[in-house]
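Q: Could you write out the predicted structure for this multi-component system? I'm mainly interested in how the pieces pack against one another.
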Amino acid sequence: MSAWDAYVTNMKAHGLQICGIFDLQGATWAKSAEFKVSAQEVANIVSGINSQSFPDGIHLNGVKYTVIQVSPNSVTAKCRNAPCDAEKYLMHAALCKTCVVLGGISGATERSATKIVEEIKDYLVNSNF
Amino acid sequence: MSGGVYGGDEVGAVVFDIGSYSFRAGFAGEDTPKAEIPTHVGVLDDLEAAMDTDGCGGGLPDIGNITKKRYLIDTVYMKHPVKDMELSTFLKDGMVDNWDIFEKVMDYVYSRSIKSESNLHPALMSEPAWITKSKREQLSEIMFEKYNVPAFFLCKNPVLSAFANGRSTALILDSGATQTSAVPVCDGYVISQCIVKSPLAGDFVAAECKKLMEEMGIEIVAPYTIASKEAVADGQPPKWKKKENLNVTKSFHNYMVKDVLQDFAASVVQVSDTPYDQGQTDSMPTKLYEFPHGYNHDFGSERFKVCEGLFDPSFIKESGGNSMLGMGGVVASSIGMCDIDIRPSLYGSVICVGGNTLLEGFTDRLNRDLSNKTLPSMRLKVIAPSSSSERRFSSWIGGSILASLGAFQQMWVSKQEYEEGGKQSVERKCP
């Protein structure tokens, strides 16, 4: 799995605070150390994007995220009730053919999260993932 | 590929706010826009330019190339009657539709209102909450390629209106000229799945006024046709003379008539506190209105009937009225589509913005309608800024506030980022 870890290092270098690449059922390919999420939660995100609706919202590690925007291949959600301010991430999830990229930032630069995750997704799609 | 910090305190950003009634532009940090230009422009065929171009030589002429058009922008130029001048708007559904006219208006704004070169100021532009990806990309392309702005940012209207009222979570009820929309904003982000739109807005009120005039047999005479008039007593037939040799297009005439109706709506029309009741409105005081051609009349319960359709669509006589939502319904359904956790905070800050909300009695009636629709335990607060300029320009003011914040300076999309990332960089970075 070490090849994928390089991706995580790359994503963190671009500014993402929590990031990870998972397959469509939620199994982890690589993720950053602070990112706590269960496979079921990731699978829910994937099925939500595919059906374009999130009846229960999005949960990461049990924390509720409010869905802001749903596009054909991605979703953006914001956390409002985290234990501390530093964990109130703006999370973006983008779907590739065989995997899903998740990334989030909290704080002043949080809006860059969408851009960085989309760029990683573009690169993966071009490499046939 | 880092975000980079752009600018500092010295460089003034320009803020543009495009609405279906007018286009607002000015500098960030100020409290009102420098320019408010109607989004209708006069379009004339430029015959001199057409004579200069050579013929196509056989085949069908390409109309787009041969007939050049001249555009008359801004109140002073477009409200003056000119032969063969059509009045048309470059917006459709709140989004830019005709990019040629849009560029001409931008050129005009930069040279006459901003009075500066476009490449010296970062530009913040507002957009409707339902804008599409392709329009945003095209807009970013024009701003960076044609106007060479050093930095650019797009922000949705409801978010800016919320900031202008000091909140980052609110439900924005924007009732403007062409449509009314209820958009929930959460922590500065629009929740795009819960937007509810309705066509019952300023233009609807103007159309109802027109029907009322036709029923009462009052002719709407636009001021540009009047050569002279005399004062007449209340209710007496008007005495006025028409100007000779006027030759204008239908679109121009309709626009000027609508102007009179909008003035009538603003001065006389009132929203009743309770659902329309003939007996109650008959006991309310009447208002006198003098038309441009001298006729004056006291309006009583008609002035309440005209706008009742905004709150109670079943009141509208034509079919289809029952399927539309009134103001209270629009707000309630938008909040109803949202996550249950944020509903209390949305009900606790319902912000009314937009020119149509300036109708007398609008906010009181909205308050009453909403409290009927919500549970008694829900804390409801309707916020409506008191001054008219704060309501009409709320998204511009929000943009002015946002662009002058220190924390915002790192959020701009700089020209370098655009060149590296392409036109999607704006679309992606501005949620």
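A: Regarding packing and overall arrangement: The CA atoms of residues 27 and 39 of chain A lie 6 Å apart.
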